């Protein structure tokens, strides 16, 4: 059997929101690479998939620095990409797990960019955090002719303002540490009353705020906090 | 046991791209409602989930008119919502399946708007068609500070032009019947060479075009055809 690398999306957090395909592949891997936020720290992605892992799968946690220094990050991406290449060349069935969907705001794409044999790669898509948030909040992402923008709150303020003005629905990711600023932008745009915020959707710590006007500017938020804006949604 | 309504996202098309949760719920339903494109026609959503259905699950196909007449559509939404309400009130475990993700461009939200007991509803999110396309094409949706717009090609031309100018990545859905116009807009925006088109991603009829410049304006396309634009993606 020739080697293959699977990039497996875990979905938003609840273990049973992974795809059937992802779960089946996890059961037959020789080795699984799991990203960990801090050196020696736990991997949330690993905790999601643990129940699906085969008995003989070796697990390797890899640490990606959150550093602003892109040279430092590139060294790590290059190292992990070479390690994945080597496993595949050795004929192994290799997995790399990634939170949410592998192709949206994921470290995985920096590895994909650097792999020597993309033809040996299969990417298993996953449920995005914002699809999970829309489901839990019973608030649609977009209907019919509407348009949806997915932006990170780390984007330029002018770009966020423009997107708020132009789209019917918006997903604002990476709110953590930026809530006061985003709340002010939503207020300026007249959108505070059609926005909601969720943290850790589908995980045991899930929280939802539907009245952002009443949320204090210094409200402590979990790392995975996202705002969903839908300008037109209402029950009939 | 009290009645419950599950809106179950099937994912993009391949049966094993449904979530583990969706598959498990399908196995325990009393009744499943499946949307069908044409009256008496087959339901693509039903063909995706058939293998997960319990032996005793009753299947009811419901036809939603594609008509431009919104009064006609509203009558059907109201009828189906009342039927779902009645099943739940009778204590049944009821499913409604929906292609892709239930909260994105789905008829499901028109039913959700009209249900009498949203507290009896659980929405199971799914893999969107565009996440599947990004995975199959090995082309990311967005990285780091980038922004993604998801728009329907039925939107106003001025809105499409604006989105093409402003976002790093774009998903253009509902290309069917509008390819020539969208190709011209992409060309005007200088984006023809960073766009790709996929039809029926993850289904047996999957097709991918990476050189849109060479695709003829009157190329016959399947109904589920989507264009993905990523202005910055390249291998290292």
UniProtKB/TrEMBL annotation, chains A, B:
Which species is listed as the source? Kosakonia calanthes
Per the record's keyword annotation, is tRNA processing included, yes or no?
Answer: no
Report the record's Gene Ontology biological process terms: methylation
State the protein's name. Cobalt-factor II C(20)-methyltransferase
Pfam families membership: TP_methylase
Q: Give UniProt keywords alphabetically.
A: Cobalamin biosynthesis, Methyltransferase, S-adenosyl-L-methionine, Transferase
The molecular function terms in GO held by this entry are: cobalt-factor II C20-methyltransferase activity
Pathway, per record: Cofactor biosynthesis; adenosylcobalamin biosynthesis
Taxonomic path: Bacteria, Pseudomonadati, Pseudomonadota, Gammaproteobacteria, Enterobacterales
């Amino acid at each position: 059997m020739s080697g293959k690398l699977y990039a497996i999306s875990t979905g938003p957090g609840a273990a049973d929101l992974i795809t059937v395909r992802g779960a089946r592949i996890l059961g037959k891997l020789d080795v699984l690479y799991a990203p960990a936020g801090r050196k020696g720290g736990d991997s949330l992605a690993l905790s999601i998939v643990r129940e699906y892992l085969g008995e003989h799968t070796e697990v390797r946690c890899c640490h990606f620095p959150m550093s602003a220094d892109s040279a430092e990050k590139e060294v790590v991406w290059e190292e992990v990409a070479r390690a994945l290449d080597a496993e595949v060349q050795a004929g192994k069935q290799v997995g790399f797990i990634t939170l949410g969907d592998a192709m949206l705001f994921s470290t995985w794409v920096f590895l994909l960019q650097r792999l020597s044999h993309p033809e040996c790669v299969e990417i298993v898509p996953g449920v995005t955090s914002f699809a999970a948030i829309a489901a839990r909040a019973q608030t649609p992402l977009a209907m019919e002719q509407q348009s949806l923008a997915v932006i990170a709150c780390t984007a330029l303020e002018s770009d966020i303002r423009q997107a708020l003005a132009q789209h019917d629905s918006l997903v604002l990711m990476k709110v953590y540490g930026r809530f006061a600023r985003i709340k002010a932008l939503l207020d300026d745009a007249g959108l505070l009353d059609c926005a909601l915020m969720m943290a850790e959707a589908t995980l045991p710590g899930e929280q939802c705020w539907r009245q952002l006007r009443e949320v204090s500017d210094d409200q402590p938020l979990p790392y995975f906090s996202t705002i969903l804006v839908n300008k037109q949604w209402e029950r009939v």
